[in-house]
Specification:
The complex is a heterodimer of chains A (225) and B (210). With 225 residues, chain A is an alpha/beta fold. In chain A, helix 1 packs across helix 10. A four-stranded antiparallel sheet of chain B has the order 1-2-8-4, with no helix packed on it. Classes of the chains: A alpha/beta (225), B alpha+beta (210).
Chain lengths: 225, 210
């Protein structure tokens, strides 16, 4: 099962959701942000190398038990981004799914092919948004793109949700249940250290919210099998 | 095959929402038919009908196990059932209607322009898809904000001044602007965790190599 974590706007918390969802589901986290190139120099193969045909997908997945999740990082160089063929992404994700069963793809924002191809490859997507009007408008565009690419919408994560949280309008407009995630110091602290929130603050309401999303993913997976 | 429908009437128009489930072991072509007493008003995308309805019927193809949501409107009162399966037959497989290349053609190639790569032209070392990697070029082309900041600036905000204006080919300027916009957003904060996990993975890998 391949789940794309998508959103129309950068900075809404897609990577936060992707990391935490990979942690609660045991899925491989794939950093699908092919052009952001903000990761430190890596001594191992990256998604860029896989998409350039230089490394088999499964070999590029980092599985050290000391890591909080199994990870396929993206590359960091412009030349790597140029050499990577985004069209290879769907078969890459399929290969990782065949080996590990579950794949969570952190999908770049926007409406170009680097955002569209993970949606094309995924069995379903989770949209991450905030309450700001401009962000919701971008989220609706990504929703339309997902629909165009036959990628079902599993859940909507309303990040940085401020009480009182009103989710019904977003639910009705985008067409899926809404899971609010509050702004909370443990979330920021965990992200700073590259950890899922559960590793920093077990039992925190954000952890419960991520577990709820994880249950939806598992339930969806059960329905398909 | 299973068809579950719900209706919602508003202002003399009935909205019909259906989920068609292929609960068989083979791909199938299925025709459903509107049973309400009115013309099917198809969903529209960009002003044009988005379905393939013909004379109140719609034929679709579903792989084994797949579900498909189907919706339409009708100027008629609701009744049960609003729609029903009238034909179903096995097919070999659902033909793929779109390839990854189609998606990239439709949405645009996200890769940086070739002449944006450090060393391209001057060194002739830019890697094209399918060509072997050039580690030297990779080092020159390092675009990690962290490294750039350490090497050239005290303040990450100074990144903006790195973006050429008016001197680069339009394709490069457009690409750099898109990156600049993302750097200005809160995206870096969100991606900090992935950066940290990747750094952790790298340090673990290096420890193993030593």
């Amino acid at each position: 099962m391949i789940i794309a974590i998508a959103g129309g706007k950068g900075g809404v918390g897609k990577s936060t959701v992707a990391l935490n969802l990979a942690a609660v589901t045991g899925g491989v986290l794939v950093d699908g942000d092919l052009t952001m190139a903000d990761l430190p120099r890596s001594s191992g193969p990256t998604l860029h190398d896989v998409l350039a045909g230089e490394t088999p997908p499964v070999q590029a997945v980092r599985t050290d038990p000391a890591l909080p999740v199994r990870l396929l990082p993206c590359g960091h160089s412009l030349s790597g981004a140029r050499a990577a063929d985004p069209r290879v992404l769907p078969e890459t994700l399929d290969a990782i799914e065949a080996r590990y069963g579950s794949v969570i793809v952190d999908t770049p924002s926007g409406l170009r092919a680097d955002a569209g191809l993970p949606l094309y490859a995924a069995d379903a997507c989770i949209l991450v948004t905030t309450e700001e009007t401009a962000t919701l408008a971008d989220t609706m565009r990504t929703r339309a793109l997902a629909r165009e690419l036959d990628c079902g919408l599993l859940r909507i994560v309303l990040n940085h949700a401020r009480p009182p949280v009103e989710t019904s309008a977003i639910h009705d407009t985008l067409g899926a249940p809404v899971i609010p995630i509050p702004t909370a110091p443990p979330v920021a602290e965990a992200m700073e250290h590259g950890l899922p929130v559960g590793a920093v603050a077990p039992g925190h309401e954000a952890v419960t919210a991520f577990e709820t999303i994880g249950e939806a993913v598992q339930s969806f997976s059960s329905c398909r099998s | 095959m299973e068809l579950v429908c719900a209706t919602d009437e508003s202002g003399g128009v009935t909205l019909v929402e259906c989920v068609l489930h292929n609960n068989t072991r083979t791909a199938r072509a299925v025709t459903i038919e509107n049973h309400l007493e009115g013309t099917v008003l198809e969903p529209r995308e960009h002003g044009a009908p988005a379905g393939d309805w013909s004379e109140g019927a719609l034929t679709v193809q579903l792989s084994a196990g797949d579900r498909l949501g189907i919706g339409y409107a009708c100027r008629a009162a609701p009744r049960e059932p609003p729609a029903a399966i009238v034909h179903s037959e096995p097919i070999d497989q659902v033909p793929s209607t779109r390839s990854p290349s189609d998606v990239m053609t439709a949405l645009g190639d996200p890769r940086p322009p070739e002449n944006a790569i450090a060393g391209s032209g001057r060194r002739g070392s830019t890697r094209a898809p399918g060509n072997p990697p050039d580690p030297e070029s990779d080092r020159e082309a390092d675009c990690s904000p962290t490294k750039q900041t350490e090497d050239h600036h005290e303040d990450p905000q100074d990144w903006e001044s790195d973006v050429p204006t008016g001197n680069a080919p339009p394709a490069i300027e457009a690409w750099l602007r898109s990156i600049e916009t993302r750097l200005e957003a809160d995206e870096q904060i969100d991606r900090a965790a992935l950066t940290a996990v990747a750094a952790h993975a790298t340090s673990l890998a290096e420890r193993v190599e030593q």
